[in-house]
Structures are given as C-alpha cells and as structure tokens.
Amino acid sequence: MSTVLEIHSIIRWVIVIVGVLAIIKFAIGWAQKSKFTGADRGLSSAFTGLMDLQLLLGLIIIFWGGLVDGLGFPRVRLEHGFAMIIAVVVAHLSARWRKSGDTLRFRNTFLTILISLLIIFAGVAALPGGWTR
C-alpha cells in the first residue's frame, strides 16, 4: 500500500505542474483570442486524465486502508476524498464547452482548471502533513 501512496504523492506534483502550465497556456490563448488547437485539447485531456488516475489511486488508498489495513475512515481522509472528487468533477466540466467558440473554450477551460487546482490545494492542505508529506 505504501507504493500506491508514494505514486499518489508523486502524481499530485505532476498534476500541479500540468495544471499551472495549462492555466498559463489557456490564459494566453484567451487573452490573444487564439484558435483552440489539438495541442490545447491534449493539454486539457492530460490534466483531466491525471486527475482521473489520481482519483482512482486515492479511492484505492481510502478503501484499502479503511477496510483491509484496519485504519478505518477518519474524518480528515473522507473530507480530503470528497474535496478531490469535487475537483475532478470541476476539471471535467471543460468538456461541456468543446463545441463552443475558441475564446469561450479558452476562458472556461482556464477557469475549470484554476478552480480544480484551488480545491486541490485546500484539500491537500487539510491533510495532516499537508503539502510537506
């Protein structure tokens, strides 16, 4: 289980890096009224795909630790899990605008990734050890 937790911890940093790069890219695209390209779709998909993987690993950790390892379900772990599920749902909202105009897609994808990252920062900070763990 510690291997899964280590992978989960590493992927959070990958998500932060990809998320920050995406925010910068989509803010520039929005400001310059650029065309939403395949690379932009790929960056958005990479972010949501990483979020999905992180959610899967997190659910394994919560349920395996709670049921098999006998750690139970402490409130802080459940709150963290709930916050992360909300972050994943928000990240997926950008797909709702895939047929919209380019400026609207850049703006809304920028906002969904920004909001997801804010929820992630709060959810991880609430854990014992927070971002230093």
Characterization of the model:
The protein is mainly α and 133 residues long. Helices cover 77% and strands 0% of the residues. The protein contains 4 helices and no strands.
Concise description?
This protein has 133 residues and is mainly α.
Features:
single chain, 133 residues, mainly alpha, 77% helix
Helices, strands, pairings?
Blueprint: H1 2-31, H2 38-68, H3 75-92, H4 102-125
Helix pairs in contact: 1-2, 1-4, 2-3, 3-4
Total individual domains: 1
- What is the strand tally? 0
- pLDDT < 50 stretches: none
Q: What general form does the structure show?
A: elongated
Radius of gyration: 16 Å
State the separation between the terminal residues, measured CA to CA: 16 Å
Summed up, the helix count is 4
Q: Which class of secondary structure composition applies to the elements? A: mainly alpha
Order of helices and strands: HHHH
β content, as a range? under 5%
